[in-house]
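TOKENISE THE FOLD
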Amino acid sequence: MLNTDQLSLARQVDMVFKELESELGGMTSGTVFIQIRNNGIGKFGIRHHPIAGRNGRMADEEAGLSATQLHSFRTMAIEALRYKKYWTHGEISYDFAIRQDMIVVDAILESNYNMANLMIQRYPRKNHIHTYQDADVSS
């Protein structure tokens, strides 16, 4: 079994889109989100745009993304990774919608940092040999 650290992030994004393909095939808009930790994808999914109802009835579902639009979406999602610089933790969101039979995608890249890790790396404790310097640790 492969671990996520053995696959490039681009390959992992490709796998996400293959997994979501049937769900995206029934949608015309929404947001695909991918959570990244240590340059590996953990959680991913789709945030659906609301379904509109009128006169006590839900609107009929429109046809979702076509195979060509799905391919374009996946290609744009992988291409957006070029703009991810230096960070290893965060989230990428892809807002998408069909407009005039074309898919429109906006990628939002969010980096996350951990202050505790920053403090440990940049400001190590000076006396890190013993936690309790004045205590007798022999017993």
Observations:
- The mean pLDDT is 86.
- The two ends are 47 Å apart (CA to CA).
- Residues 9-24 form the longest helix (16 residues).
